Amino acid sequence: MKRLFLALVGALALTACNSQPPSTAQHPPEAAPGRSAELPRASGRDREAQRNRRAESNGSGAFDFYLLNLSWSPEFCATHPQKPECAQHLGFVLHGLWPQNIDGTYPEHCRDVPGPSNPTAFSDLYPDPGLLQHEWQTHGTCSGLAPEAFFSLARRAVHALHIPRELTTLDHQESMPPAAILDLFHAANPGLPPDSLALGCGNNYLTAVELCLGKDLHPTSCGQVRSCRANSVRIPPPNP
């Protein structure tokens, strides 16, 4: 009888424990490392705002200086004669104003936002609207500026650099060391810091000159930007 009594007491205690309601103080399981807990599905507008915030944290407006790249049109047009600007037989033309970092890295494709509402307002910079759109999506979206403000800044940057007369009047192909070409730019632009210019070349031909500018467009050091290391580069004339 004593054993039966103890068994009944134990059974009643077990039933009471199992009938207790779950504690409301329990915490949900933590997400695995590297993952976030699932959030409620956002609306289209909320998702766009989240993308913009992520873009801003991933580099939009967060860079050290601008790299102004002016392409030597005769070299480009030698392999792209069908491009709109090539019919004008120009010298240096704007390729882009590119956000850059001192350590040599650079942001790209920072925000998914449309370019200028009136692209023809910048046809003096980009006769090819496709190139304008490419430059905006790839580089301009990382500037932290609206499209119109970004391309207006690019226009100011282009007009601030004086092209040496020796290159604007070139009527035959020349060959010069890269340092000599940069010396021409320094002579035409007194006061430029010595390390604010770089030269682009390919297959021993001049392809571009690059000027490093602060966000206020004051010339600054190019940091890790690489300059042409050829012994001499050939410079085809705008009007062959």
Protein described:
By secondary structure, this protein is of the alpha+beta class. The protein has one domain: Ribonuclease T2-like (Ribonuclease Rh, Chain A). It is built from seven helices and six strands, in the order H-H-E-H-E-H-H-H-E-H-E-E-E. The protein has helices spanning 2-18, 44-57, 73-77, 129-138, 147-160, 165-168, 178-188, and strands spanning 65-72, 92-100, 174-176, 197-202, 205-213, 233-235. The strands form two sheets. Strands 2-1-5-4 form a four-stranded antiparallel beta sheet. The chain has a two-stranded antiparallel ribbon with strand order 3-6. Strand 4 and strand 5 form a beta hairpin. The protein is globular and about 45 Å long. The termini are far apart. Mean pLDDT is 81; it is low at 1-57.
Reconstruct the topology from this structure.
Elements: H1 2-18, H2 44-57, E1 65-72, H3 73-77, E2 92-100, H4 129-138, H5 147-160, H6 165-168, E3 174-176, H7 178-188, E4 197-202, E5 205-213, E6 233-235
Antiparallel strand pairs: 1-2, 1-5, 3-6, 4-5
Order of helices and strands: HHEHEHHHEHEEE
Distance between the termini: 119 Å
The CATH homologous superfamily is called Ribonuclease T2-like
How can the largest sheet be summarized? Answer: 4 strands, antiparallel
* Shape call: globular
